[in-house]
């Protein structure tokens, strides 16, 4: 009986496993080797250098600079994005007028490509013809910041775009979670005279915990990446004086500008380990007893 | 991929031409070709013994497009019946070609330009590029009695030399300097300054007229390095300053000429002479602002005109001038070199065909086509004869002839050492926005230069 089952399962699984092995696992293993070599990304075979690349990593200011920016994103993006998404989701599910219009509008940035968003927002931030600075000048701010040209504002400017882009997506996820909460809880609470705030913090949020957990992991992984938006908004130059450089843009530059593929892959390995570690810690920290309903 | 076998019509034309020559079945020397109109010099037809080669070229297609390369490939096909050179125009050359190079399947000839191109220093260090000595010594295609090298502008190929070996050839003649609108300056009665002090005085006048004296390519501060810093340092301290930098001599960046030049440039920021918001703009955005007379000067090379052609207002009349320094007598000294590097792969299938394409591309006939249709100049002697040029190109050529023997040599550190290039670029952005002093700029860049010198993994080059 069992044998027959496997006879059926294996042929079905094989193509997927072979493709996964060839195009995902094999490159991973190869990358792990390259991280221990000095390779210029050309035809000459990689030269094994042991732990040199990782040693260099620890004393490389550019690496710590990029990691610091990632850390800022990891702390701010989840709070801002998920906070906004929860707020919007809660408001819209409270049967406000035009709620379906709002839902589509807020979700819209999610279906746009990152490159389009980057270019669009570069124009919003444009110092002379941009809508943002034109507005600021209109309300009397004579010398608004050059958002993408000033190291003090460039990182925040990119973070704001990411919040704008991602909030709608998490809003839809939260709305789906909220709609699966039985309305009897809300009705009972309303009968007891609970206010909107109480309903949100005492019913909605606890029952949404599982959704929030996965959303948190998603957004933290995104905050560790940030390649597309950084690359398009600062045109591959990582902002004024590397002020928007993150690990992903650093490793890209190390490989393609400086021809240090070995070192770049070592950064990628460190990046991989950090993301794994963060996801693991987050899942651990947020583990609660699941409430079934 | 465009492959052009000899059509029947072409064949008839060729045959007719051949019939007028000495013997049938063999092309006579000094022969005119009907399709391209090229007149091949005596004994210059086939120095690389091309026969029945199907070669492949992949080229950056940017501001110049790639039709001018197709024109050269047509010459190639016409003078070598049975052989072809395919022409493909692409962007982001590095990302497209790297996999092919790694797998040993590189095209025969490429144009490694534009954003996302291949790191030339690494290509040289890894032995990927052909030594072009045979090409340089080959007879020029349509200039009788001269070698290929002798038909090119003196100094135009210097940047392609790595330890004395020619690794690539530049096909676009480029003059670097400060640009302004001739019309605006005539209207306001402003005269281009002869020294940097006069430049600052003029800037004050321009500023009080409600125009920002300067802008630059904001997110790409390197334009202020090759556009202003490099020529100014060379005028202040001589070519030895940059030689020391290129050769990674200890403390090379601490030279007083570099310090003075950086302080001169910082004065632009300190006096508020740089257009507000410049640092947030891309190269084309800042150039567009300049074209609307929001700023008076911008640094750039001669590709500027072609790059901005569609948005240049009628009657703007852009002209280029050399960067002023301390001595008015040195004003005319100008940075004129060449760019758009074409390379042949050492391990390609048809390296000879690659070199032959470059011989066709830098022929007089092709240079004329380029001047006429692209509006730029190839570094080929006599290549712009009888072609009507724009005010931009005319001013560039006038600047070069004013300079006489004083053509400045551009330093090579930016090509040789990408780390120094990056640090200099970032520090220049900081200097021009008041976040760094000249001393801090020097400290940062010298620090990276020291690191590069100490790094055994970075291949070093020498120039003299």
Describe the structure.
The complex is a heterodimer of chains A (293) and B (464). Chain A is mainly α. Chain A has one domain: Orthogonal Bundle (MetI-like fold), CATH 1.10.3720. Chain A has helices at 2-34, 52-58, 61-93, 99-111, 114-124, 131-138, 154-179, 183-191, 196-207, 209-225, 227-233, 247-256, 261-285, and strands at residues 37-38, 47-48. In chain A, strands 1-2 form a two-stranded antiparallel ribbon. In chain A, strand 1 (37-38) and strand 2 form a beta hairpin. In chain A, helix 12 (247-256) runs antiparallel to helix 13. The longest helix of chain A has 33 residues, at 2-34. The radius of gyration of chain A is 24 Å and the shape is globular. Chain B has 18 helices and eleven strands. Helices cover 41% and strands 13% of the residues of chain B. In chain B, the strands form two sheets. In chain B, strands 1, 2, 3, 6, 7, 8, 9, 10 and 11 form a nine-stranded mixed beta sheet that branches. The two termini of chain B are 42 Å apart. In chain B, helix 8 (222-237) crosses helix 10 and helix 10 crosses helix 18. Chain B has two domains: 8-170 and 340-388, Periplasmic binding protein-like II (D-Maltodextrin-Binding Protein, domain 2, 3-Layer(aba) Sandwich); 175-337 and 406-454, Periplasmic binding protein-like II (D-Maltodextrin-Binding Protein, domain 2, 3-Layer(aba) Sandwich). Chain B has 464 residues and is α/β, with parallel strands linked by helices.
